[in-house]
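re: ur question from the group chat, yeah i did fold both. here u go
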Amino acid sequence: MELHQLECFIELSKFQNVSLTAEHLNISQPALSKTISLLEAELGVKLFDRVGRRIRLNDHGRIFARYAEQTMETLKEGTRNVRNLEYQPSGTIYLGLFSYANLIADCIRDFMEEYPLVKFQMYSSKSQYTIDNFENLDFTLTSSLKSAPVAQDGFLESFPIAEEEYILVIAPELLEKYLPGSEGDHLPLAGFHRVPFLGMANNLMFSDITYTFCQQAGFTPNLAILTNDYATKLHMVSLGNIASFIPEVCAPVFKSYRPDLRFIHLTDISGRRTIHLSRRRSSLVSQTCDTFWNYAQEYFHFRQ
C-alpha cells in the first residue's frame, strides 16, 4: 500500500466524484480509478458503491477513511516535527482582516508558541495600509454568505475555518417602539421593516449584508448609518436608536457593553456565513507562510 493510494482515496471519499477528484489531484481519471482499484484489491473489499456513473462511500470505505485520515495526519505532524529540528521559521506574516479577528486569534497564539521567531502584522479592512498594500498581504481572513469564498485576484487558495450565524442586535426600547410586545429571541426579519439600520460600508473585500438580508425578507432597509468602525457600531447600537446585524461571535462584546441588548435569531431568512482563510497560490510564497498555512489547516481541521 502506497501513500499516494491513501491520498487519492481520502480525496475521493470527500468529493465522491471521480472527475472532480482527478482534477483536484491533477491526475487523469483513468489513473485515479486504477489507483483506487489497486487499493481495493489489496484490502479485498470494495470501498465505494458504484451506481451508474456515480460513486458512494460504503461502510467499508467509511471505516477505512477514518484510519487513512488519521494516518496521513500523523505522518504530516511527524514530518513537520522532524523538519523543525533543522528549520525554525522566522520573519513577518502580513494578514488582512476582513472578518472578525477573534476567529483566528487562538490559532495564531498557538503557532507563535511553537514558532517564536515568527511575527505577525494584522491590518483591518478599514486600514489605509490594507488598501494601499493589498498585493503585499500574505493572507486574508474573509467571510461569505456562501460556502465558497469571494474570488480575489491573487488569492486563489482558500479553506473554511468556521461557519456561524448572523443575528440582529437591538436595544429593548427600540424593539418595543417598533415591535411592541415582542418576546423571545427568534423572530422574523420582516417585522423589522420600519426599524432604522446601521450597516458596514462596502470596501475592497467587504460587502455589507444588511440590504441582502432585508431583501430576502421582502423589504428595502432604512440604512440610516454606514460605518466601517467597529467601536462606532458598538456605541451607536448601545445608544438605542438603531439596529444592526452582527456575527453571533460578536454578541458577548455587545452584551458586555450593554447587558440588556436583545439578540434576535431571524426565522425567515438564511443568515449563515462561512469564514475563509486565503493565501496567494504562488511559487514565491515564503517557507514561513507555507508553514503557517499548513499549521492553520491542521488546526481548524481538528476543531471541526
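okk and heres the other one u asked abt
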Amino acid sequence: MGILSSAYQALQEEIYNAVPDIPCEACGQCCVSPHMTLIEFCYCMFPLTSRPDTLQQILSRIVPAHPEYHGNMLCRFQTPDNKCSVYERRALVCRLHGHPVLRKMGFHYQVHCAASQWCTSTFTPEDVYGLMDRLTELNKGYYSYYCPPYWVSGMNIESWLTVLFADLEQHTFRLLKKIMLKELQIGAMEHFFTQRVRLAEKLALIDKFQAELQYGNIETLIPLLRRIQNDFPETGAYYYFEAEMYEKSLLEQRRTL
C-alpha cells in the first residue's frame, strides 16, 4: 500500500462518489489537460505503476495544444475514441465538468461543456465548494497546500509530470517530487517523458516578482505579472489567479497615488 492510501479512500468515498453522474456523449472537446491536486495526481497514476507498458506509452505521448481552447493542452489520458484511460480515477474537475452549476459559479478559466445548458443536475455551488474544501483538507495533511508564494492547487497534469521528472530548485517542489517518487516509484521512467513544460522559467519569474514586491515598484511588478499569466499557457492555471489578484491590487494602488 502507498503512503497516501488512506487519503485515496477518503478521496474516492467522500469526494468523487459525491458527484452525481451526468450523460456524456464522449465528444472529446472538453478533454483539456486537467488541473488537480497532489493526491489526485498520485491517485490516478498509481494503478499505472503496475502496468509499465501502458505507463511508458502515456509518458511518451507528445501532447498538442487543444485546437479550440487557447491556453489548454489536450489531455494525456485521452484515448483515440475520446474515452478516458483513467476514467475511474479521473480528477474532481473532470467529474464536475458538464454540471450547469459551473456556469452559474462563473469560473471564467473553466472550459464548459456545450451541452451543459440542457443538462439536468441538482448540484449546487455549496456542494461544489464543500467538495473543494474537503479536497483541501486532504492535501494539507501531506504538504503546505495552497500556501503562498507557491499555491499549487492549479497545476495541470503536464506541470505535475514536470515536477516529478525535473529538478526544480524551489523547496516546495522538491518536497512534492519526494512525495510523488516515494508513492509512485517510477523515477526510472524519467527518460520516457520528454515534453516538460516551462515551469522552471515561470517559477524564476515568480521568484523575481516576490523579490521585487518588497520594493513596491508598480512599473516593474505589473509587467512581471503579465508575463507570468500569459507567457506559459502550457502550465495551465498555475499561479494565474494569484497573479491576477496581485495585479488588481497594484492597479488599485496606482489609482490612489
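fwiw on the second one: Residues 36 and 80 are 23 Å apart (CA to CA). The chain has two domains: 5-146+159-192, 199-256. idk if thats what u expected
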